Amino acid sequence: MKKFKFTLQKVLEYRQQLLNVEQGKLSKINQRLLELEKSRNLLQDKIVEENKALKTEASLGLKITQYELRQRQVCYLISALDSASGAVLNEKMQKEEQRKVVVEANIDVKILEKLRERRLMEYNVAVAKDEAKMIDEFVANVTAER
Predict the structure, then answer these.
(1) Contact present, 4 and 116 (Cβ < 8 Å)
(2) Looking at beta carbons, which pairs linking 21-27 to residues 24 or more positions away fall under 8 Å?
(3) Which of 113, 117, 106 is nearest to 18 (CA)?
(4) Residues of the chain under the 70 pLDDT cut
(5) Contacts of 106 (CB under 8 A, 6+ apart)
(6) Would you tell me which of 22, 69, 91, 132 could form a disulfide with 33, CB atoms 3.0–4.6 Å apart?
(7) What local confidence, expressed as pLDDT, does residue 146 receive?
């Protein structure tokens, strides 16, 4: 009997490549998300520091113009924090969408792998039947010759 060949092997390989590509995209999104969260956390820390410094300097007698300038800096940091939070939220949504794509690609690969396993098992059963048939024929021929 000839060697086992899975007829959908090229399709399986293609789907595995797609899965790898989609996993790579998810990895990049995760990396960007970590960077955005780190940036957002740094902004939060900076806002806390600026507010503490502003209160400390105000209690020591800060001029009104300097106070307003520092207050505008804090407002600017807060708007930057809002923008960073929006970017983090957007990236999380992209991550979830990409995760769904990866799950679908993984399911497609698993289906083909299961099919390949089933076909291999069927092939092995057919080979075993052929071998048993050949052995029976050989035994019949040997006993017929005697």
Answers:
(1) no
(2) 22/98, 22/101, 22/102, 22/105, 23/102, 25/98, 25/101, 26/95, 26/98, 26/99, 26/101, 26/102
(3) 106
(4) 1, 146
(5) 19
(6) 91
(7) 66
Q: What is the pLDDT of residue 98?
A: 97
At 66 the pLDDT is: 86
Cα distances (angstroms) measured from residue 36 to each of 13, 23, 27, 48, 93? 35, 20, 14, 19, 13
Contact predicate 116/6, CB 8 Å: yes
Quick one: pLDDT at residue 107?
97
